Amino acid sequence: MWLSVLGLLLGISLGLLTDMQIPPEYADYLSIAVLASLDTLFGGIRAHLQHMYDDKVFVSGFFFNIVLAAGLAFLGVHLGVDLYLAAIFAFGVRLFQNIAVIRRLLLAKWTNKKEARESLG
Amino acid sequence: MRKKIFSRFSIILFIIGMMIAVQYNTVNEPDSRDTRDVWEIRQELSVEKQRHSELLSEIGQMDSTLDKYEAASKESPEQALKETVDELRKLAGLTEITGPGIEVAIEPSPEAVAMGQNIEGVSPDLLIRFVNSINSFNNLVVSIDGNRLVNTSAIRDINGQTTVNTQPVQTPPFAVKIVAGSMEDAEKLSNYLLSSPLLDDFYIDDLAVTVSEPKADLTVEAYDGKISSQYLKDAEEE
Known about the structure:
The complex is a heterodimer. Chain A has helices spanning 2-17, 27-49, 55-79, 83-120.
């Protein structure tokens, strides 16, 4: 688990230190991509906790969601419809659901452990 | 298996972190962009160059003072110090100064006199505007109605009267004496005043301004007040 946190910290520090910037026109796409990746990430964590994690699904979902979200935003800009709102809505709702499920799973795990310890003691 | 999952997660998290950081950088980018065109930059460059040359000439002056000190310290240190004090007194406006300059007479305008209008004193705002605009010339020595302008001079309204150095300025007519560095400068100043919109500003207040021809020696009075230096302190030894 700490390896993942390390990866996150490494990514953030690398991004901040290199002072990399993208043109402001593309900031919208990147924000949607970040949302999509967060959604995939929490989906992966949930799947892992529910013991149905699949490597291929996770990695392909990550990239596919990002591309889909950015593509939808791109299409929206060109059609004059705020399609990126759809992406934000979908990902936002799923993000909350995933986090809720993760919370429940962790709570259940914790209570189970506690009960097991009490029954032992 | 577990290890593999975490390595995948690490890679994904690394990418996410990178994306978040880039997004943060992009959003926090200050949007004050350099929008000056070539001419504006040129102008700024010329201003800086002028400052550069001014600083250089100042350095030259300091150097020559230093040389004088060094040369004089062998013979008579007092003499060098006295010279410096005199120079500083001159700069501070404590001595009379005679030199090429112009006299500006401020009088009630003939129209106002003909109409029998009340002649009121010149307003401090107008005087300040006048002084500020002639201050665009360097090295001017100015006295308004016999009151020498020094660095700490205030032109302001005290109980309805316009004062310079807290001395009231009389109701027009009165004279403003300006000594410039050279005859050429005096001429320039005179031409500048003749063509400046300031005269119209004076005319609005029913005042006429007459700018004299440059005179070879005009004497400007010394500042007779006390220069308050309550905030000045001795420099500390290093």
